[in-house]
Amino acid sequence: MKILIIHGPNLNLLGSREKDIYGSKTLAEINSKLKALAKEICVNIMIFQSNHEGEIVDTIQKAKGYGAIVINPAAYTHTSVAIRDAIAATKIPAVEVHLSNIYGREEFRHKSLIAPVAAGQISGFGPESYLLGLRAAACIANAKRGHSKKKTS
Amino acid sequence: MKILIIHGPNLNLLGSREKDIYGSKTLAEINSKLKALAKEICVNIMIFQSNHEGEIVDTIQKAKGYGAIVINPAAYTHTSVAIRDAIAATKIPAVEVHLSNIYGREEFRHKSLIAPVAAGQISGFGPESYLLGLRAAACIANAKRGHSKKKTS
Amino acid sequence: MKILIIHGPNLNLLGSREKDIYGSKTLAEINSKLKALAKEICVNIMIFQSNHEGEIVDTIQKAKGYGAIVINPAAYTHTSVAIRDAIAATKIPAVEVHLSNIYGREEFRHKSLIAPVAAGQISGFGPESYLLGLRAAACIANAKRGHSKKKTS
Amino acid sequence: MKILIIHGPNLNLLGSREKDIYGSKTLAEINSKLKALAKEICVNIMIFQSNHEGEIVDTIQKAKGYGAIVINPAAYTHTSVAIRDAIAATKIPAVEVHLSNIYGREEFRHKSLIAPVAAGQISGFGPESYLLGLRAAACIANAKRGHSKKKTS
Amino acid sequence: MKILIIHGPNLNLLGSREKDIYGSKTLAEINSKLKALAKEICVNIMIFQSNHEGEIVDTIQKAKGYGAIVINPAAYTHTSVAIRDAIAATKIPAVEVHLSNIYGREEFRHKSLIAPVAAGQISGFGPESYLLGLRAAACIANAKRGHSKKKTS
Amino acid sequence: MKILIIHGPNLNLLGSREKDIYGSKTLAEINSKLKALAKEICVNIMIFQSNHEGEIVDTIQKAKGYGAIVINPAAYTHTSVAIRDAIAATKIPAVEVHLSNIYGREEFRHKSLIAPVAAGQISGFGPESYLLGLRAAACIANAKRGHSKKKTS
Amino acid sequence: MKILIIHGPNLNLLGSREKDIYGSKTLAEINSKLKALAKEICVNIMIFQSNHEGEIVDTIQKAKGYGAIVINPAAYTHTSVAIRDAIAATKIPAVEVHLSNIYGREEFRHKSLIAPVAAGQISGFGPESYLLGLRAAACIANAKRGHSKKKTS
Amino acid sequence: MKILIIHGPNLNLLGSREKDIYGSKTLAEINSKLKALAKEICVNIMIFQSNHEGEIVDTIQKAKGYGAIVINPAAYTHTSVAIRDAIAATKIPAVEVHLSNIYGREEFRHKSLIAPVAAGQISGFGPESYLLGLRAAACIANAKRGHSKKKTS
Amino acid sequence: MKILIIHGPNLNLLGSREKDIYGSKTLAEINSKLKALAKEICVNIMIFQSNHEGEIVDTIQKAKGYGAIVINPAAYTHTSVAIRDAIAATKIPAVEVHLSNIYGREEFRHKSLIAPVAAGQISGFGPESYLLGLRAAACIANAKRGHSKKKTS
Amino acid sequence: MKILIIHGPNLNLLGSREKDIYGSKTLAEINSKLKALAKEICVNIMIFQSNHEGEIVDTIQKAKGYGAIVINPAAYTHTSVAIRDAIAATKIPAVEVHLSNIYGREEFRHKSLIAPVAAGQISGFGPESYLLGLRAAACIANAKRGHSKKKTS
Amino acid sequence: MKILIIHGPNLNLLGSREKDIYGSKTLAEINSKLKALAKEICVNIMIFQSNHEGEIVDTIQKAKGYGAIVINPAAYTHTSVAIRDAIAATKIPAVEVHLSNIYGREEFRHKSLIAPVAAGQISGFGPESYLLGLRAAACIANAKRGHSKKKTS
Amino acid sequence: MKILIIHGPNLNLLGSREKDIYGSKTLAEINSKLKALAKEICVNIMIFQSNHEGEIVDTIQKAKGYGAIVINPAAYTHTSVAIRDAIAATKIPAVEVHLSNIYGREEFRHKSLIAPVAAGQISGFGPESYLLGLRAAACIANAKRGHSKKKTS
Fold first, then answer.
1. pTM listed for this prediction
2. In chain A, which residues have their Cβ closer than 8 Å to the Cβ of L61?
């Protein structure tokens, strides 16, 4: 099973800045942890980061073979109907993750445009949010595959 | 007379997904219909699709020779001040079209940032929205050209 | 196929007043154009105008034989739940048209109570809005008839 | 004792359409039930239906001899200050009834302009709403008459 | 000079009901006072009352010869875009009057849809509101006529 | 058939206080009337009062054998998602009743969290609200039972 | 009978500026007209202008002998609870006047803090607003005096 | 390390009702899974369910020895400031979990009063939400203990 | 004279937690101070604390012999219509107190459901708020008793 | 220790007007009571009243030697950012007092701009509010002085 | 060329208080810097400070000879329609300056009533805001003078 | 010292279109003026324009060596959380500039998502906004450098 990991805008800066909010781990370190967990729970992951809304939309559209998406839409969480529509269109189950607890921050960060079309949301656990997200994604993708198999058999 | 057709984000997925909302016609099929109608009513059309807000802005900025624009801004309808400003800046009359009836969907889709600077809006008729939009655009562009000719003569 | 055209309140004044918003064509001239187009595309049309909300409701209720309705609810667009309910009750597909771009005018004109129960909406093209609306209505009515025939055959 | 029953706009269509919301009983059937109950509880009823806000206002104004009004204002529930003012002006106690549970439908149907000047409101029980409403009206009218008699004696 | 006086819905009940809000004068008494003042200040007045929004719209549309309109839209003050549009369309200056101080009553009565297109508004002085309104209307109509004469001479 | 009657917080004080709003009947008197009507229309009723949200939730959860619930949620009408969820979970049809006309009182009492999941709502008729509510509940429960019988037979 | 005329902030600039909104008459000219009308209808007037909220409050507090106040609160219409409270405290009937139609201007000018405690409001008739206001004030003051006399006699 | 699991109101009904939203697993089955995972990751868990807001507050107050709390506040998520204050007061890190995706349901379920004081939130993964929540809680509690140890050593 | 002191949810934790907001005094220490002041000003006090909304309602209902209530509703300040209704029903004057300045904290704490039915409110003075509240309650209860005595004598 | 008492606009009218809201005590009587209490609790007070926002700001700015301020901002409570900023700037602890229960009056009086920068607020106890406010102010000023002394010693 | 500098309420306290928000420079120091820059760029400046809204209005009204105004309205930024109207009335271009970044502070400071009638706004640069404001004002005044000269020559 | 100048979407069209709002200067002319001023005040500037939100984010992320950023986010001012987050992440002080007075335009342009994380904002002075912005940026960057030097020395 393949799972696509998408990091949204400014997450490439992780670890070097605003450590009080986002922690001191770099994106590379988070990706290593994700790869280790992926190996442990036997899934293949593909990792993508972009600051461009359009590129994230493109990437989601091309995710056809994947069993699930783990996405931290970052700033686009609150402003991108395009990413929301892409997720809804592809129908690949998406797990929305956030490093910080978005409900404890500025008012405008409390509203996610992505959440209503995501399978579920995990926020506030730092890098652990991604690991929990990967577990959730694997779990959903498996359930779905099992379901499809039964149907086709 | 030349008319520019712009398809916004995720419209490249048409026909294969969410058929209950967007119908079963692919974008290629809609484009064929547009070309056929263009021939019938004697206008030249140029067709462009992008998932990137910036590319749509770029394209509108370069539309100088065109008599009118038919645009389905899709997700950017509700979030892009940049596309709105580009349309307002170029002053080429724009016809906003939507496949689905946006007023019968989620609350946040009821508000179009583009509509106040568009010449008019057509929504809810499926692929027919584009054909009606092309007719409207041709009509406006003709009226404008007639008007300009009189002025210069 | 028969299509019902309904002109809402104050549209009987068209052509003689507020030409900057509504243009200089009279309602009679618009009706002539509608009849010409109806002949061209082979549909029968019946035209009705009233300033009374109740009469418009009555008329919609009696539209049983019609394949579609083209309605410019004018002022009642923003205040009439009764017309909305009548359209929803009869289930005859309705095309909402507006001469002016209602999204470029006062705030209270941006919200249509009719739109969510209409098949679609066309606004901003002056008298052309009606002609496009008639085409759209014919198109929907045809599709529906085709669909019914298949079902019954 | 006389009680006036008022059916608002589109209720004349009952039974033939949108049966999932309004049920399959026709207005005639509801009226029969109302007459039967009226006989049983010994009140005289007068029944009126109109799609015209003004006619409903006229009718309420002329209700002077009646002990109470049972009114289903339908669409006018949410838009008619005129009917509200007429009820307040005549001071005849009014019982507001609705077939469907208006609080389980679209947001704009949750707010009744009539309720604050009505004696009470009954909604959601289908045709039974009318029967309960007639009972309530008889009860209020009786209490009032008793009260008046004591006063004058 | 001719001035049209329009009394909106429920004003025919004046004097007999809700005297604490609307006073004890009947509509006939107010009309008498209006006629007396009209004679005094040398204007002709025509008086019209209706509970029907559509009839009021019809009446305003036919007011072509009149120099000004004095209108108490009553309940329609807060709900009728159709009356607003009729006033805006005819361009005859309209003076909006109210018996009660609408700003000291329920929240929904604070907002007038008519006020933005009226020449001015007078509220809270009981029957005196009409007399002041007639004076204001005469004054505006005179100014306008003077202005037109100058233009044409 | 068994029907459960639930009285919410502070209703145990009825009759001794705030008689202008809630009337002078005590809860015991209302319960007597309910029992009399129950006998008359041949249903068994169980009556429960509590000031504790949690106890009301517990009671609803245990209502399995009952054909319907008549509930006056009183203060919890406007604040309890837990009672709403309990009603939705048990799927026993619930009739929401109020002694006073909640739409004629403070703004925050106009919104019922219970109404959208109730079968219907009756408000404003004093103790009569309960009697009408019991009739409505019996009616719904009967219809449901009839429906189930047909299904199972 | 004495009537106090209060001109609020910036009204001392009348006639020399923003003539499109406020007209070309100076405050002195308006005052002359007021004095002439006062003589005609036999009332004494005292005129006061200030840009200071506190001075207007002081002046209202000292108005004890006056039968009525005519006040154009200008900018303080929308921001001064202090002037509102002063009017409410003195209980001298106040007529609120505005030169321009405040309901046809910026949103924040639609709401008057003064109106709910004023006897009535006149807006939109230019300098004529003051003259109508003086008539209204005289009328109210007379009615009140008549009422007091009867009481004391 | 000990972790406290709190199930809010109506969760005792899981598995038997509204399976389309909450799934077919009973609370007992979820608890078994939690116990199995707890054993696997070497933590002790204590499980508590209540429909009473006050009891949940009491339980949180007594959680002193626990390293973390996993709480599904269910209906109280949206209405209980008391539970929020209890969590904030005890300062034991709390993980908020939801079976369903609360952001894809009714508007009033989108706002959590608990989230701003929780460490993080997990929603939408059915029973898996609890298992992810337990992992997250163990992770946070360990980090905290490690941190404390360093401090004290 | 007897005065009832009610401490709402989580106040039993005072002194040990969140000292920056609530200070370092325990509830026992506050109660001691209250008892000392009660002795000094010659009133008897009864003290009650609960985390359960229903228990607080029960307690208020049973307060019949008391001259006044001093209540710190804590979290229930912002969510409990039931406590509000209980206070309104018993008509015993209630003094609402808060340790912290609720107007300097989170937005949702600015609105008290209790305040409109309380005699008055004291907030922000730490434990001193209770002492001032007891003085205020004694003062009100005395005034009331004096008033009653005069009446009965 | 010196404490500054500030009475806002219209409070100089106390006792002679609107006695149902503000009571029958004059400002002089309240001041006498304040002086008596000041003597009793051994503080010096300075009393100031003004209807001018600017003068109140000036007075607060010059309060440097004072240990605390007791202020009834009256109408300026709801409109004056300037007074708020003056209090915040001087950092002298301020106790906000109100004669009436502002939370039981008009909506616009529920919001205090002063409260977030005040030490605390007391409202609803009539003249007693001032006396409680003086006690609170003395208490805070003492605590502060004690704190400063310790620091400097 | 003459430029008027207006400092609003509480700015006379600068330098001694709340240095974290407003910096440690006194108003005198800022004024010195302004005078130095004025000399350098060859403009005459007049400096005025007041805590009184009315005095600021008076001063703006008397600014006739000035080419531009630099105004820091401080607290009145958010509450004074009177200052807004004075600026609009005099038509002297005004530059609004703020020491702090008002968009990074409390919600109510985000809205300026002055900004829509100012030429432009500069905020957030501490004393530098004034210097930039003076440059901007000189620039606008020069442009205007050049424009006027051309016109008159 | 190096300063980065960022021009947002559609600013490349400056000078040729919508001159009434944005003036007749081209972007090239503004850039020339910026370079001239940069030379005069001895700073190096780098200039960048893009219509793509993602490219602007990328550019801000790479600005590490720069002392300050001058950014006109144009349309993205109101919609881009990504640019806001990029500025907050890099911590390079940013000066937000606008050619037009955004507070005098459409409602949706009054709210800047960038302003709360910018050092300050300058709007309304046409091309002069950029020059003032460059001065402000140089000033802030110098202050910061001086501050850093002191720290490190």
1. 0.94
2. 10, 12-13, 51
